[in-house]
Write a structure and sequence with these properties.
164 residues, Nucleotidyltransferase, domain 5
Length: 164
């Protein structure tokens, strides 16, 4: 499961790699947070909704975007709070959390670490063979994070097997 943390929209996406290495999207969307709602209430909604999605879809692991540098300190603090709640939802459900940098995510999905959001959205749509592009962008970003983890984990498994 990939989670794209945000204080207005928190995207989520559950992706599975099948035996034939085909990627399948089981669910995607975004938790919409109402502007003007106190931060504590937003965090509670994110926790409750993510916990329900995890319970329903039973992912094996949760992947989120790693901390990046933000120009606005207030925005960075809010993002950190949302990331903490996403990690808490995963760990309270007994899941490990993998973290990936924005550069790693874009490289794994698009092949270019400085790709634009619409390029990520288009590639996610192709890789998952979706009829329509996931919206909002937070949903496609969450799917990209999940795909990044699947590709990275597969590469790590092959590397470990080769080094034995």
């Amino acid at each position: 499961m990939g989670i794209d943390c945000g204080s207005e929209y928190t995207g989520f996406g559950v992706v599975e790699e099948m035996a034939d290495r085909k990627l399948v999207c089981h669910t995607t969307g975004a938790i919409k947070l109402k502007s003007g709602t106190p931060m504590a209430a937003k965090l509670q909604k994110i926790f409750v909704d993510l916990t329900a999605i995890i319970a329903q879809h039973q992912p094996e692991i949760v992947a989120i975007e790693d901390v990046f540098y933000a120009i606005n300190v207030k925005t960075a603090l809010k993002l950190g709070q949302v990331r903490g709640v996403a990690m808490l939802a995963a760990s309270s459900s007994g899941l490990q959390v993998a973290e990936y940098s924005p550069l790693s995510i874009k490289s794994a999905v698009v092949g270019y670490g400085r790709a634009e959001k619409h390029q990520v959205q288009q590639m996610v749509t192709r890789l998952l063979n979706l009829a329509v592009a996931p919206v909002p962008m937070d949903a496609s970003d969450a799917l990209a994070i999940a795909i990044c983890h699947i590709h990275t984990a597969a590469t790590n498994r092959r590397y470990q097997a080769a080094s034995r």
